[in-house]
Design brief:
Residues 122-132 have a biased composition (Basic and acidic residues). The protein has 132 residues and is mainly alpha-helical. The protein folds into 2 domains: 11-62, no CATH class; 69-130, no CATH class. The protein contains 6 helices and 3 strands; from the N terminus they run H-H-H-H-H-E-E-E-H.
Length: 132
Amino acid sequence: MSCGKPHETDCSEVLAEVWLFLDQECDGSRRELLARHLDECSPCLERYGIEEHLKALLARKCGGDHAPDTFKQRLRARIRESMIAQGEVTIERAPDGSSTVEVAGRRISVPPEGSSCLAPELSREHRSSSAG
């Protein structure tokens, strides 16, 4: 796709990065370069507009949906099983329901099922204890 005019940045390059531009995930200088191209090139600007509308539609229609907890639990279990099967992980279970997980030589304590593994105080405590 091209408007036939010479540009500092090739149209295919701009269109390949349009999602990064939309998500504001490129650095300032790259963003300026892409914006300048979109201002000068009507076919790319049209395509960018379509992408922008698609992203807004997806955000409206899918933005509030969250995966059910049962799905998240099944997914975690499958990932855990896969990691164990590949021999990268070992798990030791304690009588209180907690676990010690070793991943690539690093040991991490995990609270019993139902506890939040992402609690900030647990994460800090376990990061500092496993860093040594």
